[in-house]
Amino acid sequence: MAASGSSSLRATASRERHNHIPPSSHSSSRNLNNGPIHNHSVRTSKERPSSASSSTSSSSSSFRRSVTPNHRIHPSNNDEDPGRVRVAVRLRPRNAEDLLSDTDFADCVELQPELKRLKLRKNNWSSESYRFDEVFTETASQRRVYEVVAKPVVESVLNGYNGTVMAYGQTGTGKTYTLGRLGKDDASERGIMVRALEDIISSMSVTSDSVEVSYLQLYMESIQDLLAPEKVNIPINEDPKTGEVSLPGATVVKLRDLDHLLQLLQVGEVNRHAANTKLNTESSRSHAILVVYIRRSVHEIIDKITSEEKDTRTELPGDNHVPLVRKSKLLIVDLAGSERIDKSGSEGPLLEEAKFINLSLSSLGKCINALAENSPHIPTRDSKLTRLLRDSFGGSARTSLIITVGPSARNHAETTSTIMFGQRAMKVVNMVKLKEEFDYESLCRKLETQVDHLTAEIERKQKLRENDKCELEKLLRECQISYDEAKDNLVTQVELLTAKIEMQQKLRENDKYEFEKQLRESQISYDESMRNLVTRSEFLEKENARLELEVEKILGELNHQKDQNNLKREKIVQLEISLKPSKKVLADTTQMYEKKITELIKQLEFEHARSVGAEEQVDIMKKLISDNQKSIEQYEMENSTYQKTLADTTQLYEKKIAELNKKLEDEHACFEGAVEQLDMVKKLSSDYQNSNQGQKEVHELCVKLKETRQLHESAVYEVQTLKSEYKNLLEEKETMSDELQAARQRLLVEEKQRKAIEYELVKLKKTAPEHDDFEDKKPYTKDYISKGSSRFGAPMSLQKSNPSRELSGQRATIAKICDEVGLPKILQLLTSEDPDVQIHAVKVVANLAAEDINQEKIVEEGGLDALLLLLRTSQNITILRVASGAIANLAMNEMNQGLIMSRGGGQLLAKTASKTDDPQTLRMVAGALANLCGNEKLHTMLEEDGAIKALLAMVRSGNIDVIAQVARGLANFAKCESRAIVQGQRKGRSHLMEDSALEWLIANSKTNSASTRRHVELALCHLAQNEDNARDFISRGGAKELVQISIKSSREDIRNLAKKTMKSNPRLQADTHA
Predict the structure, then answer these.
(1) Do residues 62 and 378 make contact, with C-beta atoms less than 8 angstroms apart?
(2) Residue environment code for 237-256, b if the CB has 16+ CB neighbours within 10 A, otherwise e
(3) How many angstroms separate the Cα of 933 from the Cα of each of 241, 980, 989, 1069?
């Protein structure tokens, strides 16, 4: 009954109010949900009803109660059509490039803010006028833009409606500045994101309201979390009933205050993809979406309840005060700028990013066109961007769009496209709905807390009663037990006392009996002892007389024994003298054994080292098939010498063992003689056992004999170990010979395979077309493709068309060769003996490496190791140049960069640069090192391998292209270092300061090459951001050069970066003022 009552209450108590829109039978509008919406959820400006019809509709319409009342359409009184998308246009100020390039032309855009119109000049005598909801000049402040464009949407979101604020325009026109500017140094420069959240936080209640944010980016059709970069490919879920779009898995953070928001936005800005292009040094390469979830409670009492509902309701405490809650969502979308490849100069990964950006923007344009033309089909599923914005265009959200344009006539086509997009967006009308729900969650929480409190109180009282009962029972049991114990103790004590009394009586009787018995025995023993004393005294008298006679005899024997003792002493001295040379012989033999053992160990180590060297040589022979025959012969010679030395050592060991055996036999004979002498000594000493001196001497002789026996046993053990080591050496010799035979067989098989592959390549050479300029037109580095050469005064487009056709034809030929031959066989040809075969094979690999699809396969099949081996061993300039270009192409991938450095690629590139003066080879090597400098994790390895010094040393060639690559590498290195310092991942002085890079950058800051100058200026700005470099900058003139960059640089973004760097570094600022 409670469940049914709550469901009926939920169904009847919510309300839905619609805008006063008249029904129309001749048109059916559609929204981005790609489904029909009744009562015209989407209308074009041509289909707006008149005021009379709208008033009639409003008078005839009435409030209706829905079964699932989750939304209410907001009635607007101050605007004739509140659901229409509001579009404003903002003009970017002219920068230095516009001033230089458009000096002879007027602006293509003319603003009339008082009429809210924009004139777009086709030429000097014709123009077109467009009307917008608001027109902002280049002097408009950030505050005014926010109050006109975003503040009405923010107020609607605070009232419970969904809202969207979006920026659209060409790259470099100020979209990110308008929306995402943080304004940490200057609060007046804050963008719409910070200002909108500041208003929302100030109007929230701390106790009952909540604000949560998610910060995402759409990068190459993959939704990624900017607050948690590890979360990628976040799916999009759509509710089939309500059509709401959700992003499960995205990080949702509850905001505490404005400082917390700024921290989150700064983290997202660091994780967002950006790159340096010709149109913008910090070009956004993804669509950024800030999602704000707002939950506000509405203090409203429901008084209108029908009688039927009262009958079905269950009586709940406080059910006439059901709280209301409003849930709304605000989207702030910073779209990536549309761009043309020929103007932005995008290439490689930047080209792929531009493709996805333009594809998603074109899908959005198609949806806007379909909505504006009232098309029956809206293609929302062509892109994830249109799926995310389905509620913003043609949905239930209030949407404001700001389009940004530039004044330059060079971008007339892009400006026209942006303006037409805004004009079509103005025709889209949304059905604004209020999302208001009963806050049953808070009511349930209150009731649950009350129930929990009551149940806890009841349980507490029950536990108290049970505890009291248990304590009483316990006390009763304890008393009973103590009583029983006391009773038992008393009985046992009485029994013990009686038993003790009886025992004492028995003991007294026994003691009396024993005393009497002992008295009788003592009397008998006294009598016997007296008789024994008498007999003993008589015996002692007789024995005394006999002993006197014996003493006289013993004295005579002692004198005789002394004479014999002297003779024995002389014999012992002679024995000691005879034993001394045997001891010396044993000591010499042990020393000799130790020396021989050390020599054997050294020889074994030497042989082991030689075996390890042989294994390394076998590995090298596998890689270098061309030198297999020579290495085999050399190895056979070494084996023959090894066998000779092994035979010599075995003969020596056998001779030494024979000598040792002879010596052991001699020692054994000596030992037997000593044993015989000792036996004689023992026989002689048997008569002299009573003398102490004879016993000591015999004991010493026994100890010496034991020592000699131990020495003999150790010598025998050493001989046995030498024999076992000799057997092990013979076994190792046999295994080495087996391995040599197996290696010879493998080398023969590989030689046959190599000849077969060379034969196939010769056949392919005959079938494939040959070009003399094959290597010069291959894309060994990504920037080499896009560079146009205008030396002969020909137009750029004509110069680019022919190489692109030739490249496409050559790529088709290379793809055909790769399909027919196979990548593993092509990589095997890199080790061929024929230099022509090597050159053709490395050209094919270099062209394959120019495609991102082939790079992973090349690395997996060992192509990277083969290219590095060519750099290490080859002396051919063409092979070195092409191999360096292939490594440069592979270095565009971050994963390959780590592999290149871990396998010594940095050192090999540095050595290659030092041993050649060919400008084309140096350009390839510099391009590869420049790509590696773009990875901050490899900076320490590059410094240790000498790659930075080699990069600076390559400017000796004086070639413009080489110097440009060097400048690009230093710019990449400095930028990564400054980013790591800002993120707190690195501290200390820059590595470039130690390699004299600052002096070279200052000396080349005024070069004639625009590309080189731009990279040099960027490198100086990023190096100056590190406070630990300030002293070097001041002492070497870098601070003055930074001031010149901030004033005279041809690019506005670089000037702004230089100014910002000087402001952030107080030491540089003080030096410039001084």
Answers:
(1) no
(2) eeeeeebbbebeebbebebe
(3) 52, 13, 17, 29
Query: What does 349-413 look like in DSSP terms, one character per residue?
Result: HHHHHHHHHHHHHHHHHHHHHHHHTT-S---GGG-HHHHHTTTTSSSSSEEEEEEEE---GGGHH
Sheet of 109-112, strands arranged across: 109-112, 117-121, 127-131
780: enclosing H helix or E strand:
none
- Give the C-alpha separation, 1026 to 1017, whole Å: 15
- CA separation, residue 802 to residues 412, 770, 780, 788, 798 (Å): 28, 17, 18, 11, 7
Q: Is residue 119 a contact partner of residue 128, using CB atoms and an 8 Å limit?
A: yes
CA distance 1051 to 1045: 9
Alpha-carbon distance of 687 to 834, in angstroms, equals 99
Distance, CA of 995 to CA of 906 (rounded, Å):
16
**Cβ atoms of residues 897 and 891 within 8 Å:** yes
CA distances from 7 to 3, 40, 67, 87 (A): 6, 30, 10, 43
Consecutive sets of 10 residues in the chain, 1074 residues long: mean pLDDT of each?
A: 35 34 34 38 35 33 32 40 88 80 67 91 83 94 94 92 93 90 89 94 85 93 91 88 86 92 91 80 86 81 40 43 81 87 77 87 90 87 88 86 90 90 92 77 77 89 90 88 86 85 83 79 77 77 78 79 77 71 64 72 71 61 58 64 69 73 72 68 58 59 72 74 78 77 77 68 53 36 35 32 51 67 80 82 85 84 87 87 90 86 88 87 90 87 85 85 89 86 79 78 81 86 81 78 82 84 76 64
Looking from the CA of 235 toward its CB, the CA atoms found within 13 Å total 3
> What is the 8-class DSSP label of residue 16?
B
